[in-house]
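Async update (no meeting this week)

Hi team, since we skipped the sync, here's where things stand on the single-chain job. The sequence we agreed to prioritize is pasted below, unchanged from the tracker. I ran it this morning and attached the output directly underneath so nobody has to dig for it. Comments welcome in thread, and please keep replies under the output.
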Amino acid sequence: MGKSLTVLSAKALPLLRDNIDTDAIIPSREIKGVTKTGLADGLFAGWRYTGARELNPDFLLNWPQFSGVQILLSGANFGCGSSREQAVWALVEYGFRVIVAESFGEIFYNNCIVNGVLPIQLSKKKIARLVKIDGDIKVDLVEQTIAGTEFNISAPHKHMLVQGLDAIDITMESISEIELFEQNYFANNPWIQLK
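Output:
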């Protein structure tokens, strides 16, 4: 069971670029293992650091006013490229809970859901309005609004995020039905049972 998300008021980072792929989110050279920790320093490493691994003063994430940011605003096709789940892990470890983009890579979108990150798809015009907000932006997943603008999310994905559930938790919600199915199935097909 993960961290639930119902209402969040937080600062947003405007990284308004199209086609930010998973290698830009976390370059492969930054992945030292297969754990969900130790990835935050590698987040956007190609942009955050200079060649000498010093902070790039021109990259917004390094600016003091974006310290503690939890919402990322971006362009079209965010999270495209490989199915690298470490991209979402790096975003989560850094502190991002919501990503707003015009569109998402399909696998990345699903990786967000299973890792407790809310991916919101909005038009370029609506994202531009969010960028102009001075101060925190309010996201209400229960009401499906961000700064008063409605967004869509499937009921199962919303349920997972609001309740802080992972795939195992979702399966366990149906354990009675699963056990009943197994009981009936094996009763009707006794030759399949392993002993």
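Quick observations from my side:
The mean pLDDT is 95.
The chain has two domains: 7-164, 166-195.
Reply here if anything looks off.
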